[in-house]
Design a protein that fits this description.
The structure holds 2 protein chains of 2 kinds. By secondary structure, chain A is mainly α. Chain A has a single domain, classed as MYOD Basic-Helix-Loop-Helix Domain, subunit B (Irregular). Chain A contains 4 helices and 1 strand, in the order H-H-E-H-H. Chain B is 57% helix and 2% strand. The chains are: A mainly alpha, B mainly alpha. The interface between A and B is large, with 62 and 73 residues. Chain B: Pfam families: IBH1_N.
Chain lengths: 92, 170
């Protein structure tokens, strides 16, 4: 379905075909929570890129926030203890 | 014979498992060296920083050098540790094969937006967010971004479960 036709852009640098990019952007779009749920019409690549940046930033913030909470919650944790085994089983 | 990383069986669960192991191990170290009984704000802040670094490190080490972004992150950590950045990892391009998009979802490229042509300027922001993004071509950037997002969501998911566990046990 994807044509591997490469095209020299005006800058003369890029030899990546538009179709390849479209496929990759579609793949990205699958990962984004917001766009995925909207009607599956045409979406501009720049919108997907923008949403991707926003999503990555929000994920960074979440890691931040969770690290903070963990720093307050953790008394001690022992990776070899039964406790850790419970955590593992809950997560996997 | 594996062509791309995507064809490995169950890559995400073993990645998750490796991440959990490393992260729990790192948390063990952190709490052992600095028990929460000393809860001055400075200590808590330091602990928060260490946990955050541990989380990112654990993920980068779990991915190892299979990805451009993880290699970039690992070399960042190493250059932070040593006084000089000795080893510069060269940017290798991945085998950029793609899977066909789902039939319903269509994406268009708005080339009229930039004089430079195509996605170059639109990717600037993304390049800053993905480790190693500055040196990637667009194809790799998008591919790496997808993987990076998957890893970040795994990080968040695991950390959330750990927080919930300790929250409930209080």
């Amino acid at each position: 379905m994807s044509s591997r036709r490469s095209r020299q852009s005006a800058a003369g640098v890029s030899r990546i075909s538009d179709d390849q990019i479209i496929e990759l952007v579609s793949k990205l779009r699958q990962l984004l929570p917001e766009i995925r749920d909207r009607r599956s019409d045409k979406v501009s690549a720049s919108k997907v890129l923008q949403e991707t940046c926003n999503y990555i930033r929000s994920l960074h913030r979440e890691v931040d926030d969770l690290s903070e909470r963990l720093s307050q919650l953790l008394a001690t944790i022992d990776a070899d203890s039964a406790e850790a085994a419970i955590i593992r089983s809950l997560i996997m | 014979m594996m062509n791309t990383p995507q064809q490995v069986k169950n890559p995400s669960s073993s990645l998750k498992s490796r991440f959990i192991t490393r992260f729990l191990g790192a948390l063990t170290k952190i709490t052992a060296e600095d028990p929460i009984s000393s809860s001055s704000p400075t200590r808590i802040f330091q602990r928060y920083r260490r946990i955050k670094v541990a989380s990112n490190k654990s993920m980068a080490y779990s991915v190892r050098s299979r990805r451009i972004w993880s290699r970039a992150m690992l070399s960042r950590f190493r250059s932070r540790r040593s006084a000089f950045s000795g080893r510069r990892s060269s940017v290798k391009t991945t085998n950029c094969t793609t899977s066909p998009p789902p039939a319903l979802i269509k994406v268009t490229i708005n080339e009229k937006k930039t004089a430079k042509g195509g996605l170059d300027m639109q990717t600037d922001e993304l390049r800053e967010l993905v480790p190693g993004g500055e040196a990637m071509d667009v194809c790799n950037l998008l591919d790496e971004t997808a993987h990076y997002i998957k890893c970040l969501t795994t990080q968040v998911q695991v950390m959330r479960k750990i927080v919930d566990f300790y929250h409930l046990s209080k």
